[in-house]
């Protein structure tokens, strides 16, 4: 590139959200700002949290909890030595009992709580490793906030003693540089089903034709807004139409989230408060009102040549911006849903959009010459054969100058380190390309020349390379290659073998707003009539060479074409030809990359009726851009709020195991629900970290463990610079399965929070039934409440970093968590099985924890069943199946009173395993550990047709 001073790292950092800390209004004396607070060694965390919006199910009485952490010093370390109070707005004088942020505020003192007393109704889960230099004091109380909303902060000071006066009040929002917390109470009236859209979108433009189709999601109301947009011109230029929508919630807007086009191929989250102001085009926007309702707006693209996005004007109105490539005027569609939680409203618009797109997508596929989307010769195979194997990608590991020798050496190095990857992606750098014509030269202007690999670096051809890989490393089950949707970044080389075999045309491209991708100007592409034949021939060649997967990149390139005709006709032809050829020749093993343009999201990723597609979920992993790493995980977690409703497996991209953020990235990939693959330089591996990610299958290759429900951001309205932990929620199994909550510190300082157990998926709240389906309702009741006999089942929580387990607890438990910069942890919550015997009280609780040394331990479980056996001895028989070998963890509540020799018998395939393979865990007194990998070898077992390990544990109580 021409400018020698250009820095991609600087450009990337400049594109990130800017810090905008809004400290709450000062209410009195303070001991100093954040720097002084750190020196004084006091940290306060609360639930409900400061700086965030907490939505409460109902009622005007709120349980409030705080934890004050101080450095252990000589003197009085008792909780009673401190005075802690919540300073909050009141409902006095406000209409309908509402609080006024600028009105009256009052203090509610909190009482010290013995958090170690297990007889108390609320449990505090001390699962992190203890810091001997820190003292933790816990407090609780009840706030009366009326109908809300209410705002609050916390102040604290040392109490007066006989020899000294009380210290000055210190304010947490000032010392820790965070905002006031907000409480939103869901109203008992004004249900979504009774909502009038004009009351939700203030100044709703009458230019829209509004209908209210039936929503597929209970508890939501759905609207479809349509408006006429101009078509393309006679000169092959697109038509553009801007239609003002209105202002969501008007002055009652509290917070909003938008998924915006950060640049042409990628989406990223954008956040704000009170005033909706989009600095980039948005595909989806969610808005929270002060009354606790969520309005979600989705601009539908991919129909009849339309690309629709959301913008805002200078007055703060939301605007529907539409680009039309159609030859005639068309109807653009905006979907709007309202609900008491954002997940329901989000699902309502996405489900309806799928119905709108489905038939048009099917018509597009049949227009390419196939009368059905499900090709009859697809082999029936499980997805784990492609997505569940630990993968290796050459991109960051070997660079772009690939060769057969480099690839074989890299695979040899992996095997020498004991890393048996199940899949290999040969990334950009293997293809035969035309000559560079750009000045200065860059590969983004080069075109594809031939199917065969580059002859100098792959002198014996692609098939020879693949044969060598498979012969030397039989554990590699799948080999995939990279290519661009149009062939290469510059399409097809105009003077190439491919240009002679297939008819081509030249198209002009616009330059996207990223300087490191200079792609503007002309490119040569295969014409519509030959695209299907091109893809069929190419993928037939790949399959014959032993390639059984592809990573198809640069799919956004069709959106840079200046020709409306090409976008209208040629782009869908490429998409359909790629899909059909992949189904026919590669059994749908494909990764779609740089494909988050609105037409591709709706046209190729939303429709069902075909195998789920692996789709890159965000911009790349940039190992050499420090600021990119927290943002990468943050972006993927929020983009998954959309991806969860697409027919895709979100791919959070490759990462390196030797890196400052390696474990941070590894944890994110493990809970993502998508594929996991590494890109380490040969010989540079953190095998201890890889052992937390993957495990050997019965066949010998390493597999990873993907949760059934993909990981997604749990607090969608929290902004990147809010100095709050990023919570990513996933779930594995059926109704008796396990919830997974990954916690990441994306801030530039240590953070501490109180995490309610009830926010973990699958943990049922003791609140009203209407709140159980949403993680965004607070489960907390007042401190004086207790569990009733009709309370939901108990849960067992386990923290990955320490391996510690909780006792069986209710959903009202709180987990104190402290994470340093780049810190992460993974909380898994299990539903234990309870067994009662006539003369044995309390009940025996048993839970299968999975392969406990793994980050996604619960996702290693295929099935679990247990039954009580009372024929002669009081006994429980637990049978479980696992995806791989490792250390199985079984929670047994009575384990401290039992012995392995007298009370346990473990079998594999009916064969008792050696007693030395079963031990009590050093990490928790109630954890039984079974080394099934060692037992498998000691018993000299070999895999059969089933790739699952089946284990039976006999627990005998007498």
Written description of the protein model:
GO terms for molecular function: alpha-galactosidase activity; galactinol-sucrose galactosyltransferase activity. It catalyses: alpha-D-galactosyl-(1->3)-1D-myo-inositol + sucrose = raffinose + myo-inositol; Hydrolysis of terminal, non-reducing alpha-D-galactose residues in alpha-D-galactosides, including galactose oligosaccharides, galactomannans and galactolipids. This is Raffinose synthase protein. InterPro entries: Aldolase_TIM, GH, Glycosyl_hydrolases_36. It holds the Pfam family Raffinose_syn. By secondary structure, the chain is an alpha+beta fold. It has four domains: 34-185, Sandwich (Immunoglobulin-like); 192-367, no CATH class; 386-438 and 470-489 and 538-687, Aldolase class I (TIM Barrel, Alpha-Beta Barrel), CATH 3.20.20; 833-958, no CATH class. The chain contains 18 helices and 53 strands. The strands form twelve sheets. An eight-stranded parallel sheet has the order 32-31-30-29-26-23-22-33. Strands 2, 4, 5, 8, 9, 10 and 40 form a seven-stranded mixed sheet that branches. Helix 8 (404-416) runs parallel beside helix 9 (462-472), helix 11 packs parallel to helix 12 and helix 14 (628-643) packs parallel to helix 15. It is globular, with a radius of gyration of 29 Å. The N and C termini lie far apart (77 Å). Mean pLDDT is 89; it is low at 29-39, 92-97, 371-383 and 767-791.
């Amino acid at each position: 590139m021409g400018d020698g001073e250009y820095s991609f790292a600087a450009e990337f950092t400049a594109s990130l959200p800017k810090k905008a800390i809004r400290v709450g209004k000062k209410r009195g004396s303070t001991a100093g700002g954040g720097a002084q607070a750190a020196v004084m060694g006091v940290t306060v965390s609360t639930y409900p949290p400061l700086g965030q919006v907490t939505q409460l199910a109902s009622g005007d009485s709120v349980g409030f909890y705080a934890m004050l952490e101080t450095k252990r010093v000589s003197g009085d370390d008792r909780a009673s030595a401190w005075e802690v109070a919540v300073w909050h707005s009141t409902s006095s004088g406000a209409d309908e009992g509402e609080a006024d942020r600028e009105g009256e505020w009052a203090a509610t003192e909190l009482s010290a709580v013995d958090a170690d007393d297990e007889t108390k109704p609320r449990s505090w889960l001390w699962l992190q490793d203890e810091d001997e230099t820190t003292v933790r004091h816990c407090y609780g109380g009840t706030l009366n906030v009326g109908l809300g909303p209410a705002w609050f902060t916390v102040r604290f000071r040392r109490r007066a003693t006989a020899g000294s006066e009380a210290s000055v009040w210190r304010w947490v929002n000032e010392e820790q540089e965070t905002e006031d917390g907000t409480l939103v109470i869901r109203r008992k009236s004004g249900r979504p089903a009774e909502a009038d859209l004009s009351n939700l979108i203030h100044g709703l433009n009458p230019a829209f034709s509004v209908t209210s189709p039936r929503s597929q999601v209970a508890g939501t109301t759905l609207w479809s807004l349509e408006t006429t947009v101009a078509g393309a011109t006679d000169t092959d230029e697109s038509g553009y139409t801007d239609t003002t929508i209105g202002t969501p919630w008007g002055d009652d807007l509290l917070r909003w989230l938008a998924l915006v086009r950060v640049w042409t191929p990628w989406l990223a989250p954008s956040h704000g408060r009170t005033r909706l102001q989009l600095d980039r085009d948005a595909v989806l926007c969610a808005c929270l009102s002060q009354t606790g309702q969520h309005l979600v707006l989705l601009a539908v693209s991919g129909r009849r040549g339309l690309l629709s996005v959301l913008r805002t004007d200078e007055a703060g109105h939301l605007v529907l911006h539409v680009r039309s490539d159609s030859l005639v005027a068309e109807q653009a569609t905006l979907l709007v849903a309202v609900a008491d939680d954002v997940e329901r409203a989000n699902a309502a618009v996405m489900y309806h959009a799928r119905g709108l797109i489905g038939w048009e997508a099917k018509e597009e596929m049949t227009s390419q010459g196939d009368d059905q989307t499900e090709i009859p010769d697809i082999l029936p195979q499980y997805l784990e054969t492609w997505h569940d194997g630990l993968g290796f990608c050459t991109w960051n590991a070997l660079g772009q100058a690939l060769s057969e020798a480099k690839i074989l050496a890299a695979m040899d190095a992996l095997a020498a380190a004991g890393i048996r990857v199940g899949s290999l992606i040969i990334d950009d750098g293997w293809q035969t390309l035309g000559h560079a014509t750009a000045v200065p030269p860059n590969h983004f202007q080069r075109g594809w020349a031939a199917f065969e690999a580059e002859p100098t670096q792959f002198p014996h051809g692609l098939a020879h390379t693949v044969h060598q890989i498979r012969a030397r490393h039989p554990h590699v089950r799948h080999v995939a290659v990279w290519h661009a949707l149009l062939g290469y970044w510059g399409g097809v080389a105009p003077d190439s073998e491919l240009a002679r075999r297939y008819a081509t045309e030249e198209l002009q491209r616009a330059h996207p707003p990223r300087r490191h991708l200079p792609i503007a100007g002309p490119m040569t592409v295969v014409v519509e009539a030959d695209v299907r034949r091109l893809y069929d021939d190419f993928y037939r060649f790949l399959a014959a060479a032993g390639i059984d997967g592809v990573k198809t990149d640069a799919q956004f390139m069709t959106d840079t074409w200046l020709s409306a005709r090409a976008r209208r006709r040629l782009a869908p032809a490429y998409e359909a030809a790629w899909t059909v050829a992949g189904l026919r020749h590669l059994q749908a093993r494909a990764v779609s990359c740089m494909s988050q343009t609105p037409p591709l999201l709706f046209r190729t990723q939303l429709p069902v009726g075909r195998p789920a597609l692996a789709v890159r979920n965000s911009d790349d992993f940039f190992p050499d851009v420090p600021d990119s790493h927290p943002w990468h995980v943050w972006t993927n977690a929020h983009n998954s709020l959309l991806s969860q409703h697409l027919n895709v497996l979100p791919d959070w991209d490759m990462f390196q195991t030797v890196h400052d953020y390696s474990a941070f990235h590894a944890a994110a990939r493990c809970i993502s629900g998508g594929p996991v693959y590494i890109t380490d330089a040969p010989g540079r591996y953190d095998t201890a970290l890889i052992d937390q990610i993957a495990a050997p299958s019965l066949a010998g290759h390493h597999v990873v463990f993907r949760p059934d429900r993909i990981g997604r951001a749990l607090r969608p309205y929290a902004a990147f610079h809010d100095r709050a932990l990023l919570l990513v929620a996933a779930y594995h199994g059926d109704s008796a399965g396990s919830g997974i909550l990954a916690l990441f510190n994306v801030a530039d300082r240590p953070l501490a929070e109180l995490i309610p157990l009830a926010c973990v998926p699958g943990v049922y709240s003791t609140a009203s039934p209407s709140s159980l389906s949403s993680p965004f309702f607070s489960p907390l009741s007042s401190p004086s409440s207790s569990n009733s006999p009709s309370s939901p089942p108990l849960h067992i929580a386990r923290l990955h970093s320490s391996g510690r387990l909780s006792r069986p607890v209710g959903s009202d438990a709180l987990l104190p968590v402290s994470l340093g910069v780049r810190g992460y942890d993974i909380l898994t919550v299990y539903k234990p099985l309870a067994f009662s015997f006539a003369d044995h009280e309390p009940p025996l609780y048993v839970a299968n924890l999975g392969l406990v040394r793994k980050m996604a331990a619960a996702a290693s479980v295929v099935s679990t069943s247990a039954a009580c056996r009372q024929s002669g001895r009081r006994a429980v028989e637990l049978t479980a199946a696992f995806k791989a070998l490792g250390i199985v963890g079984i929670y047994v509540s009575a384990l401290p009173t039992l012995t392995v020799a007298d009370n346990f018998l473990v079998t594999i395939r009916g064969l008792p395993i050696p007693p030395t393979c079963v031990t009590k865990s050093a990490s928790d007194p109630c954890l039984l550990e079974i080394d099934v990998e060692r037992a498998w070898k000691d018993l000299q077992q070999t895999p059969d047709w089933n790739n699952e390990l089946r284990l039976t544990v006999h627990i005998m109580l007498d």
